[in-house]
Amino acid sequence: MISKTIVLAMTLFAGMLGIVSTTTADADISHKLLIYPNESDLAGTENLVGVWNFDNTLQDSSQNGNDGVISVGSELYVDSTYGGGFTFDNNDADINLSNENNFDFDYDDPFSLVVKIDGWNDLGTETQFFIKSALSPVTTDSMIVGLLGGEQLAFRQYDTSGVVHFCESATRFADGDYIFAVTYDGTDTTDCSGVRMWANGVEETVNDFSSGTMTTILNDEAPKIGGWSGTPNGSIDFIRIYDDVLTESEIWAIGNMTGFVDVGQRIIDLESENTSLQNQITSVNGTVQDNVAEIDDLYDFWDDLRASIITWLAGRP
């Protein structure tokens, strides 16, 4: 009875693991699925100033209260890679971000910006992903991160004399979908050595056209998102702004790269884990089965010995 109980328990346990393994093995992992995690699971959350996912809203998903407000154009949305996007197609729009004081980045403050654009088909139009001034055109004491008319990613800082800090990607990007990232460490005010740029996870060479020393930024207006020279074509899936320098691994996590979970890869990982666990259980189960067989043999031995003793005692005079 004891041996049968052990075998039954082990068989059921191994069978349950077999069900888990079969379920994951049959899952379709031919393409990657991306899902939203909790904000607390995302890279660099403690340094997050704001995040806008544009899922039919301009709200700041970081819960820091930096909601967007349309100042020019219309509030229009489209379906996109990560659920929704704000579209600039035939929409010369500007989005003002609330709580201006939360964006008081100065020339010596580190920051990071990550933006996903979708279906971009006119990269020749200058587009601001983040501009720290409401002046138009921008001519003084301001900061811009965006795309140049030459189809390059750019970081600019202006003073009263014009552009004094001008960093741009060496790559001229073709139309399409991109995750761009720009970081600035707040230390190199005369050149671009403190600026790094990425496109779809690949770090870009940064060209330096700076002509002077960065100076105090005019932090008295709401920052903006939108076009600063013409109207861009395409949508913005999300924008994330940080008051710190993200690492390359964090940038990868943000868009996956934002802490999106790669379900396909996760299934593959679980498959490997389950296979390893299944092998361990099979090994343990085999050992237990061997031990149970030995115990059964021992019981048989004692049963035979007992019967022999009884027979011997019964035959005594």
Structure, described:
There is one protein chain. The protein is of the alpha+beta class and about 325 residues long. It has a single domain (about 35-265), classed as Sandwich (Jelly Rolls). Helices cover about 25% and strands about 30% of the residues. The strands form three sheets. Strands 2, 4, 5, 7, 12, 13, 14 and 17 form an eight-stranded antiparallel sheet that branches. An eight-stranded antiparallel sheet has the order 3-6-16-8-9-10-11-15, with no helix packed on it. Helix 1 (about 1-25) packs antiparallel against helix 3. It comes from Nitrosopumilus piranensis. InterPro entries: ConA-like_dom_sf (IPR013320). This is LamG-like jellyroll fold domain-containing protein.
- Number of separate domains: 1
CATH topology: Jelly Rolls
Globally, the shape reads elongated
Integer-rounded radius of gyration = 31 Å
Number of helices: 3
Query: What is the helix/strand order?
Result: HEEEEEEEEEEEEEEEEEHEH
Could you tell me the mean pLDDT?
A: 73
Give the biggest beta sheet. 8 strands, antiparallel
Helix/strand class = alpha+beta
Q: Report the uncertain regions.
A: 1-41, 257-261
Number of strands: 18
CATH architecture, by name, is: Sandwich
Percentage of residues in DSSP E strands: 25-35%
The CA-CA distance between the termini, in Å, is 37 Å
- Indicate the CATH class: Mainly Beta
Organism: Nitrosopumilus piranensis
Protein name: LamG-like jellyroll fold domain-containing protein
Pfam family, one: Laminin_G_3
InterPro entries: ConA-like_dom_sf
